[in-house]
Amino acid sequence: MGYLFYDYSCDMGLWRATRNIYLFSILINMKEFLIKIFIFSATLVIAAFAIDYCVANGLKKTEQEDIKTWNDIFASRINSDVIIVGSSRAKRHYDTKILDDSLNVNSYNLGINGYPFSMSDVQFRIYEKYNKIPKLIIINTDRSFLGRRNEAFNRYQFLPYLNEPLLRKELINIDGFSKSDFYINGLKYYGEYPAIFLGLSEFFKMYHIPPETEKGYKGENLKWNGDGFKKALLGDSIVANINLEIVQLFDKFLNHCINNNIKVVMVYSPEYYKVTEFTKNFGELMNIYHSFSEKYNIPLLDYSTDTLCYDATYFYNAMHLNKKGADIFSTKLAHDIDSLEILK
């Protein structure tokens, strides 16, 4: 009986050909897929750069109060004889026009809302990079000045300038910022829809915010509202925030000023008297300021018991003077600084 032999080599050849065609089709499809991924990714990157460019440059044109100060610093538009540093109490209390007229100087208010001294320190170091060194720095000291802020406030004001190393170092550890905000274009605007709208509106000249400040100063035509203070009174006391690292940083700042022949005046501007009385460690806080005054032979003008402090009509809340109060205080301050003959 004979045997039938089947040639399997034909089937193997067909299988190999089919397999090769299949693999080739996969490679073609994979190539098309990768091309689509590349195009999509490139589109996202280009869009991110475009958004960042338009929004950032738009924000650099606005005159909204918080951003304008940074815009003036980076654009070298200040170059003042006298600058004021501090928080919102600095921005609201020191009328630059009154100081200019009374002292015959060119002043600028660098007060930055919501931030203690550490941000003022960064702000001034950046200021020095782009503007001439001032003759005099007026430092507004208060109960929050030597504390530390751990969460972002008015985050949008920093967005056009996150590539500045000094600013990046300060903000990178603050809640509200992540590392991607500093290194990946476009992501820093995630959720910042008002900033995006404002930036694009300014960039394409659809809308412009007119000046909200006078060389950094913003007076508030508001009447007394003591609701926030009433809530504070429900507790046992108010505690001034004193952080040892910030105290040391302030010491370095004062030393830097003295070494660069910059005159300094520390000022404790008026606050409603009940706040002072209710602050548990107010004496400890003032002792720190007095110690720096003695160490560097710097005047400390203390207005915590000024007559303004006992009349709520000069305040719009317990910590901030309204415009009426700021006008009176700025006039007094100008007179007292003039009597010190620091600028002569």
How would you describe what is shown here?
The chain has 13 helices and seven strands. By secondary structure, it is α/β, with parallel strands linked by helices. It has a domain at 80-151 and 213-340: SGNH hydrolase (Rossmann fold, 3-Layer(aba) Sandwich), CATH 3.40.50. Strand 6 (315-317) and strand 7 form a beta hairpin. The chain is elongated and about 95 Å long. The termini are far apart.
- Compute the number of strand runs: 7
Mean pLDDT across all residues, rounded? Answer: 89
- Name the CATH superfamily assignment of the domain at 80-151 and 213-340: SGNH hydrolase
Helix proportion range: 40-55%
